[in-house]
Amino acid sequence: MGAQSAGPLVVGVDSSTQSTKTLVVDAETGEVLARGQAPHTVGGGPGKESDPRQWWRALGEALAQCGPAARQASAISVAGQQHGLVTLDAAGEPVRPALLWNDVRPARESARLIAEGGGPEAWAERTGSVPGPAFTVAKWAWLCAHEPAAAAATAAVRLPHDYLVQRLTGQAVTDRGDASGTGWWAGSTEAYDPEVLDGVGLAPSMLPRVALPGEAAGTVRTDELPLPHGALVAAGTGDNMAAALGLGLRPGQPVLSLGTSGTVYAVTTRRPADPTGTVAGFADARGDWLPLACTLNCTLAVDRVAALLGRDREAVELGGDAVLLPFLDGERTPNLPRATGLLHGLRHDTTAGQLLQAAYDGAVFTLLRALDQVSGPETAPGTPLLLIGGGARGRAWRETVRRLSGRPVVVPEAGELAALGAAAQAAGLLLGEDPAAVARRWGTARGAEYPARERDGAAWERLTDTLTDGAALLGG
Predict the structure, then answer these.
(1) CA distance 387 to 391
(2) Which chemical reaction does it catalyze (predicted)?
(3) Crossing angle for the helix pair 239-246 and 417-431, to the nearest 10 degrees
(4) SS3 for 390?
């Protein structure tokens, strides 16, 4: 298979909440030569937790599905779900299951940290973000408060992608993109913040080294996976940063991603700092910035509403005045960690299809509200939205975005963008190129184009009024 390729082979990995995906890609052309996927499990109960060792097993299974191509790879990069708290003992074994990004139990610790750190404005100016319950610093504070024995047994703290990189290379390495979602890496200094670390009882020695953009983490030093010993390992990054790489984003191009969570983001050259906490001022994987807003309730929440109504997810009907805010898991944007879903405006003539459409509207509305804050000064008003994620393939999702945004939409043909972005990072490391330029050469952002349609101002107004007037019922 390698002989048929135009250039060397690289592996891109996407270790997400639900599964690990692997792609073997021709570094010159971007052609995907092999792919694999293995599932993860997330524990039940009040929290969202996973054993990090299953990510490693899933990586091995997914690579094995790639066959001989994986063994011919010259470089590999790992993209991982952001924010997760991986605690390791002195032997490098997990102390307890990892707390995942969508675990909202640290809401109280988040509020305390914000107050003790001088308030939202001070946090935004220092770290670029206000540390909501998703942020790793809040999860560590929760662990210290609720499981002090586990915290005391912790010798090292890692993010999910860091854990996999360490097992690949034997090196404790992260990157600026994923580190920017911890709450203890400061965008203002591009380094770990000693005051934040002191405040939560973390020694800098417990954290991985932050690699520079384009720097290798090391080489493959394990014999447990079907990879060549000595292959280059990139620093990796967070899944959103990897998707931005996978699209070859330039400043000014907004992205709306429809998955288990919903996200809007754009690359900008200016360091963001939003004191409202709506926008996380992340760094990207290259040296620029990736302001991002994330909702907890997106495709799964709307699918749940469809199931309750006994309807196919595409069986929507326009019309009616019903408003549905599908905050079934609590919500992050707006910051309502204890929220439940809210239905308002039912009439005798409201149909099940209209209720399902209202669920789509509610999910898309919260993302589009954050879009203006995410878009940097480089973004022109009529710039098309790049629509990605599993939901982008659905007509109901696409048409809801068009109707509520009033903007043109492009749906890239390429899927698995986080894994593709990781592959582009590996190719950039191997070839000495800008990984975003590599992805642009691969043509990953090409896809179907849909023109702008008239914005539904009436629906937008109903949603705005319901979110404002229903604040007490939403339990924020």
Answers:
(1) 9
(2) D-xylulose + ATP = D-xylulose 5-phosphate + ADP + H(+)
(3) 70
(4) helix
10 Å Cβ neighbour count for 181?
28
**CATH top class, domain 249-412+446-473:** alpha beta
239 is catalytic: yes
Q: What does the chain come to in residues? A: 476
| pTM of the predicted protein model | 0.90
Q: What is the pLDDT of residue 318?
A: 97
Q: Please tell me the predicted confidence (pLDDT) of residue 102.
A: 86
Q: Which CATH class is domain 9-241+417-442?
A: alpha beta
- What are the residues facing 36 on neighbouring strands? 22
Token duo for residue 174: 């992260």
Count the Cβ atoms, other than its own, within 10 Å of residue 201.
Answer: 12
Report the Cα 152 to chain-centroid distance in Å. 29
Predicted pLDDT of residue 415: 84
Cite the DSSP H helix spans in 327-394: 352-374
Please tell me whether the peptide bond between 334 and the residue prior to it is cis, using omega within 30 degrees of 0. yes
Q: Which of 26, 162, 178, 239 is catalytic?
A: 239
Which residue ranges of the chain lie beneath pLDDT 70?
1-4, 476
pLDDT of residue 46: 83
For residues 322 and 346, the answer to whether their CB atoms sit within 8 Å is yes
Domain with CATH 3.30.420.40 in the chain: 9-241+417-442, 249-412+446-473
